[in-house]
Each structure stands twice: as structure tokens, then as C-alpha cells.
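User: Okay, second chain of the day. Same drill as before: sequence in, C-alpha cells out.
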Amino acid sequence: MEETTNILPQKNSFLLGQDEAQNIFLRAWQSGALHHAWILSGPQGIGKATLAYRIARFLLWADDNDKQKYLTMNVPEDSNIFQQVASGSHPDLMVLERDYTETDKKKIISAIKKGEILDDNELSSLKKSAFIRVDDVRKVSSFLTKTSFNDGWRVVIVDSADEMNRNAANALLKILEEPPAKTVLLLISHNPSLLLPTIRSRCAKLPLHTLQPSEVASLLRRYRSGLNEKMIAALAEMNGGSIGKAILYADNDAVGLYDDLCAILYAKKQLSVSKMMTFCTEVAANAEKFGIMQELIIKFLKENMPSCENKEEIYACWNKARQMFADCVNVNMDKRMMLIKLLTDISKAL
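Assistant: Same drill. C-alpha cells below.
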């Protein structure tokens, strides 16, 4: 498979499958009554961040005095606005997200002092703190006190609002209660129910939909051009309508992992214990593959539950799997032993 670097949302001019959300925002802007805050909601990997940056570029680029001429929110890639947003240097755009841990902050500072430039892959490998903190939100308040360039819009992207701790959420709420003029806040949320009700009530809603398999397939051809059509078709059907997940699955050979999982579980009495242990060891050693394996196990159980004679036992395995995966997040469990135990129980139930 040909490896292709992911296109970061701030650099991506292409968005598929979210025309309805784009049109809602464009019409609101053209009406002259644009709401000051929007929640962009939907599952991960369907284009919420890409749309947020698309909106930001458009507001910073478009002519407020001739709104009706715009049929889309496309901004030319060779424009200064597009390049400034892509590089994170536009003075009227602020992105609020989890900051880097102190250790990785030092790596960035060291690289800057040495005149080195970290590429997108190096930056994506750096660790970030668990939450957006109140000190991060206070930077937004400071940003909004400054005069915008040429009396234009100021845009704040919160990616993601779900990751704010309580104090940060309350600080953002104060900004939402008294927003400055010509300011738009775009809150990306994978699960809006986690947000404070008072934040939700002060924002317009912009729900994004999961993608159709044909749309996921089209995007895979664009971003992972080395995949053959058989692999594209398989990935497009197993990702829940998320191109982000489809790319993650492609890069970690999730189709091959699922085939191996099925081979182990369907072996029944011919199950090779050594093969299963090797499989579990390799999966547990890789954080991305372990996360994918959790989803694949749940997928396997859902698919087999209707046709299995021992439905109660399969259902019990499903409950056990969900609990174990939750414990992996909250408790420092041995991932390898957890997988071995779970796959053994599922094999017996089958």
C-alpha cells in the first residue's frame, strides 16, 4: 500500500458529503444575521474540523458587501488567506485545543531555537495534555480584546469542545454570554451531550452526517491511492461512515486484522493457543491496533449474535468486552492478558 501523509484540516480545501451543513452556514451569513457561536457535531472523522477551517477561511476572505455572489464557501488555495490559515499565521483566527505536555513543549522550543522545522508527522506524534484548561480559554479572551484586521471577522475554533475541563467550560461560557461584535466561535464536538447545557443553549447547531460508503470509497481513492478496489470496498463498509476511521483502518491493515481475528475465533476446537497468544501480543503492543481491535471484536460479536445458538453466552461476551475496554481506559490493565481471556471466552461461546 502506498503511504500518503494525512492532509491536516487547516490545509485541506476538499470536503465531501457535508453540503447541507455548508449551505446552512452560508445562508445564515448571507442573511446578515449570523449567530456568534456554532456547535459542529457528529462522529469523529467525518469532516467537522475540515468544515470549521473552511468556514474560518471563508469569513476571513469573503466580501461582506456583496454576499449574494457566493454560491459556495470555496477559497482559492493560492490566496493569502488560505495560506495564512494553513500555516496558522492569520491574525484574526485562533484555534483553541489541548496544549502539548511540558516535555513535548520543550522539544518544540528546542527545535525552534535550533532553527529546525517539525513536519506534520512529527507534530502529530507529540503528546498533548488530557484537557483544554482554563488558562487556554483565557487566551481566547485576550485574543478577542484586540482589534481585527481591516474591521473584519475574528474566528475562534475550539477543537474539540468535549475536551474542556469544567473550569475551562465555564470560562468559555462567559465569552459566549457577551461575545464581541463580528466574532464567530466554532465548537467542534463529537458528543454534544458532554457539553454544559448552558453552552449548548447559546450556540446554533450545525450537525454533520456520517458519510455514505461510496463517499468514503471516493475519499480513500483520493487520500490512499495505493489501495486496490477490493480493499477500498471492504474499508468503506466497516468504518461507520468515517473517512478518518477508514484511513486509520487502512494504515493499520484492519481488514487483515479482522480476517485473523475471525480465523482464530472460528477455529473452535482446532484453536491454536500459541497462534492466539502471538496475535494478542502483537496487537497489545501497538496502541492504534489495540484501539482498532476493540472495535473489531464488538463488530464480530454483533454480527454473530443473531445466528449463534448460544445467544446468551455471546451477549455475555459482548457485555464483558465493553466492560474490559472501559477498564483499559480507567485502570492499568494488562492488555495482552485481557485479549487472551476475551478471545478464549468468545471461542468457547461459539
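The longest helix spans residues 311-330.

User: Thanks, on to the next one.
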